[in-house]
Amino acid sequence: MDLSPEQCRAARGLLDWTQERLAARAGVSRSTVRDFECHRHVLHRGTETLLIRTLQEAGVVLLPPGEQGHGVRMR
Asked: HTH cro/C1-type domain location, by residue (predicted)?
């Protein structure tokens, strides 16, 4: 599954996490999360996997794109 910047921001919002908290839990830099969410760069596959795994382990379900785009919800 691909993670969109909008999904990442929405997932953090559901968890009430800052960019710093997500970055620390995923083991990446805050600038990586910030730049991804601001569409400054795309993620390497390994980094994307770390972020997805971290969000899912925290209870976020990432929904694939449908008629209205990507989505997120809590498990």
From this structure: 9-37
